[in-house]
């Protein structure tokens, strides 16, 4: 029987910081997992190196479900982003290995192809409405069928999602950048630019918007109602999701579809949101919600309630996560959409991925496993750099959700 012989944890910053797990079996088969948790990367690296690696050596890599249960229940202190990101990385690496041993791409292990390609959405942004519209048109010109739109709110430096340069990277400072936030200014401005995008670019594509946890339930209800004529594909994270009940109020006031889940890390975190149909898309990801094994469970629960998938795919999720996501997206019946932000050029120097983009869709690699390789020699050129996500503060100085 093959055994787990070596487990390596790499922390490097090729374009941004990624934590990557590589498991090697006694048969010389390797598997990769993404263990990146933006702004808290070293916590997961230590959880893996100091606490999980000793448990993995000598174990049977074929027993993926058993390993998941062993790491989840065996921790006693279960759940949360650090623990679940570590478990996700191990799980994903074992699926990579299983695919390589079987000689099949992972989507074939998940039931085979349900669709020809995986529709993705791009991130358009602008410092004002005009530059946002230009960016939306640019992505439509590249063949995207779906585009997210975010514009800077005048005089509010802390607006989420406005790209500076080629790649959007919010974790940009060696200590958290404290940014001002003004909800009223956002509520006055955001509907105007979403309307302007529809007016100029039409309704022939999916338009998405990320509120990024910043409204109260009633503010979110008002926002959703106000933008109904924009026919958004979704409004994302309209209010913080710790209080799942809050989404009932939003539901009562608007038909704008709701997407939640990128910061949630288990099926229990989304159970009521799904079973009470408080959301339309679940955004949990391979890297933060327990890997392929657990994310498949979440997606299957969602399918029972006609909730579709819409996994997180920002640049702080590595090419390993993107590849695993596309395999899952290719196979599951209730696929909705996949977030896709191009990584920095330096990232591609370290991660070789078989995922391809064409005609607004991503396509999984046909190679056995995930179809990603990690070049640790190249990674040595990009030593770890501590970076933090910003912190938002209201105009009165109190902390707000960034
Ligand atoms: C965002 C992310 O992609 C999204 O929908 O919410 O950019 C998020 O801000 C980052 O992943 C945080 O690290
Ligand atoms: Mg988001």
Q: Can you describe this structure?
A:
- It comes from Streptomyces ochraceiscleroticus.
- With 402 residues, the chain is of the alpha/beta class.
- It has 2 domains: 4-105, Enolase-like, domain 1; 109-368, Enolase-like C-terminal domain (TIM Barrel), CATH 3.20.20.
- It contains 13 helices and 18 strands.
- The chain has helices at residues 41-56, 64-73, 81-102, 106-109, 129-141, 183-201, 217-226, 246-253, 267-275, 291-304, 319-331, 345-350, 376-379, and strands spanning 4-12, 18-25, 30-34, 118-126, 146-151, 178-181, 206-210, 234-236, 258-260, 281-282, 308-309, 338-339, 351-353, 356-358, 361-363, 372-374, 391-394, 399-400.
- The strands form 4 sheets. Strands 4, 5, 7, 8, 9, 10, 11, 12, 14 and 15 form a 10-stranded mixed beta sheet that branches.
- Strand 17 and strand 18 form a beta hairpin.
- Helix 1 crosses helix 3 (81-102) and helix 5 (129-141) packs across helix 6.
- The relative contact order is 0.17.
- The model has no long low-confidence stretch (mean pLDDT 97).
- The structure holds D-mannonic acid (CS2) and magnesium ion.
User: What is the name of the CATH topology of the largest domain?
Assistant: TIM Barrel
CATH architecture of the largest domain: Alpha-Beta Barrel
How many individual β-strands? 18
Helix content: 25-40%
Task: Work out the strand percent.
Answer: 15-25%
Unreliable residue stretches: none
Global shape: globular
Count of helical stretches: 13
CATH class of the largest domain: Alpha Beta
pLDDT averaged residue by residue: 97
Which class best fits the helix and strand makeup? alpha/beta
Q: C-alpha Rg, in Å?
A: 20 Å
> Ligands bound here?
D-mannonic acid, magnesium ion
Distance between the termini: 49 Å
